[in-house]
Amino acid sequence: MKKLALMAALLLMGTVCFAQTKNLPEPNLQRKTLTVMESFKQRKSVREYSAKMLSDQDLSDLLWAAQGKNREDGRLTSPTAMNRQEIRLYVFTSKNVMLYDPQKHSLTQVAEGDHRGIVAAGQDFAKAAPVSLLMVADMEKFAMKGANAQWMVGADAGIVTQNINLFCSAAGLATVTRGTMDQKAISSLLGLNENLIPVLNNPVGYVK
Ligand SMILES: Cc1cc2nc3c(=O)[nH]c(=O)nc-3n(C[C@H](O)[C@H](O)[C@H](O)COP(=O)(O)O)c2cc1C
């Protein structure tokens, strides 16, 4: 009887976990975008967004461009110092908060509800974007301490945000790199300890 109850509990847990993880469509590498040079020309901070949610394909392409796996050995579109891959990418939407897994190209829900307000933190334009991408540095994964380590994780997050910026300008989406956010509220919501540091964020949406 006990065994049966345990099996039922495990099955239920599996179902719940399955329901909370969403596989993204394959990134469209043939996507029609501006050239790299045109994208540099067009890149600019945009602080007005349509409220329309990004399509699954646009979200997939955006996350892959930000820091998706682009080689068989698990390396990413954005380089990281010593290939530590310490930048976590969270996706805030009107429905929930999800964590991107670059290796599986999937999203796992980590919180329910609309928490874009704590990322916007007083800059209301950011709350209006259907998606906010948050970069969190995992200092334990980076496995180095001190000022140099802080510079390097800052640079790594900077590369992710610029990948987002350049993808958005190439694909006709609107975004801006932001340092503003309510770090305390974010840490509390996501259960981040002192080794997990919110660094930058990008609201992303279609052009209004
Ligand atoms: C590290 C960093 C942090 C920024 N933080 C904010 C921010 O909190 N809010 C905001 O509206 N813009 C923010 N910006 C955007 C800058 O204000 C913007 O890039 C700058 O004014 C130049 O404009 P441009 O991006 O259109 O060239 C930030 C940019 C960077 C690189």
Secondary structure layout:
Blueprint: H1 2-20, E1 21-23, H2 36-42, H3 56-67, E2 87-92, E3 96-101, E4 106-112, H4 116-120, H5 124-127, E5 131-138, H6 139-142, H7 147-171, E6 173-175, H8 183-190, E7 196-206
Antiparallel strand pairs: 1-4, 2-3, 2-5, 3-4, 5-7, 6-7
Helix pairs in contact: 2-7, 3-7
This protein binds flavin mononucleotide.
Short account of what is shown:
Helix content is 40%, strand content 21%.
What does this structure look like?
By secondary structure, this protein is α+β, with helices and mostly antiparallel strands. It has helices at 2-20, 36-42, 56-67, 116-120, 124-127, 139-142, 147-171, 183-190; strands at 21-23, 87-92, 96-101, 106-112, 131-138, 173-175, 196-206. It is globular, with a radius of gyration of 18 Å. The chain has a single domain (23-206), classed as 3-Layer(aba) Sandwich (NADH Oxidase). A seven-stranded antiparallel sheet has the order 1-4-3-2-5-7-6.
Question: What labels describe this entry?
Answer:
208 residues, alpha+beta, NADH Oxidase, 7-stranded antiparallel sheet, 8 helices, globular, binds flavin mononucleotide
CATH fold call: NADH Oxidase
Strand content: 15-25%
Shape call: globular
The mean pLDDT is 94
